Amino acid sequence: MNSPSASASAAPRCARRSPGAVLRSLGRLALETAVPVMTGHDFRRMREANRDFERAVAANDTGAALDADDRFHAVPIAAADNPVLSRIVERLHPQIHRILHRKFSTLLAGRNTIEHHDELIEVCAEGDARSAAELSGRHCSELGGHVNQLFDTDQFAEAATDRGTGRRLAD
């Protein structure tokens, strides 16, 4: 039988993993649907959002990094033109944001995300929907594992602040 402490630690991990797993699948679906219809304008918007993300990471501005990341991922979601997909992603957003806010508050994995975004744009521009979906799924899994490791090793124990606003970041 599980001890109370084992159950307590398993619940937060499950709560963190569940929305990420669903969002990973939805992201793959969005890319598989969007890539064949994406335009040069879409890729320019993604590149611009990624440059903004890079500047935010360099400035240690968690809020701006999340905003830029949202704009980046909104492009294929919009291009997929699937209202059900958009609605579900929108409903998951608050949960994902809480997790990402903690991840980006340490700026760990920021460089990896910038490089992933660049690679994803190139694969999308080549029109390879399947590879784009696989690349996105792998990256999401890697980040999920990274976030779980940080929680498991209590590396989020120190108070973090958003340099853009100066406020303490929420758990």
UniProtKB/TrEMBL annotation:
Which top-level group of life is the source organism from? Answer: Bacteria
Query: Which keywords fit this entry according to its UniProt record?
Result: DNA-binding, Transcription, Transcription regulation
GO: which molecular function terms? DNA binding
- Record-linked InterPro entries: GntR_C, TF_FadR/GntR_C
Q: Where is the GntR C-terminal domain?
A: 23-140
Q: Name one Pfam family in it.
A: FCD
For this UniProt entry, which residues form the secretion signal? Answer: none
Kindly provide the name given to this protein in its UniProt entry: GntR C-terminal domain-containing protein
